[in-house]
Amino acid sequence: MLQLDAEALYAELLAGVRPLLKPGAVLVGVWSGGAWLAERLQRDLGLPGGDKGYGVISSTLHRDDFGARGLASGSDPTRLPFAIDGQHIVLIDDVLYTGRTLRAALNELFDFGRPASVTLAVLVDRGGRELPMAAAFSAAKIALPANQTLSLGRRDGPDSDGGFHFSVSEARAA
Q1: Fewest CB within a 10 Å sphere: which of 39, 59, 64, 90?
Q2: Nearest residue to 151 via CA among 51, 7, 33, 39
Q3: Is residue 107 classed exposed, middle or buried when 0-12, 13-18 and 19+ CB atoms within 10 A define those classes?
Q4: By residue range, what is the domain housing residue 98?
Q5: In angstroms, rounded to a whole number, what is the distance separating the alpha carbons of residues 95 and 106?
Q6: Residues contacting 140, CB < 8 A, separation 6+
Q7: For the segment 88-121, what is each residue's pLDDT rounded down to a tens digit?
Q8: Residue 74 domain-assigned?
Q9: From the CB of residue 153, how many other CB atoms can be counted at a distance below 10 Å?
Q10: What is the pTM of this model?
């Protein structure tokens, strides 16, 4: 069974994102795992704006399977606490697979303006692309069968350290 150390990969992501940050660049995390990563990166990199200086982008309304999926329960709406026009954005996601979530997130982002640049950094690239998308940085590249799903989780609660972990499950039938 596949074993990935999400905390070790986060340390790699932290180191890999540093050189991607142009002066004045901002972090935007794709809901949900990418948003958790962006939140922690914002803090660990000491970026301006503190805990609220990063953005969250939802791909829900731009997904090509929206008719079948509808609104995901618990999905966060897009929150961008800065102007998008002319901004250098480092887009953060947890797992890059087909590229469809990323395409939807980019469509949502461009609904808010025209950034100067968008650079993608991911925790895990699992291959299997259906669209021409690539990350400028990925902490790990793995091969996973198409019938399996890799999900990032976060430990929450008053006694939790907020650490990350992965789970692998069988994909839902379409």
Answers
A1: 64
A2: 33
A3: middle
A4: 6-63+80-170
A5: 16
A6: 4, 9, 12, 123, 124, 125
A7: 999 999 999 999 999 999 999 999 999 999 999 9
A8: no
A9: 15
A10: 0.90
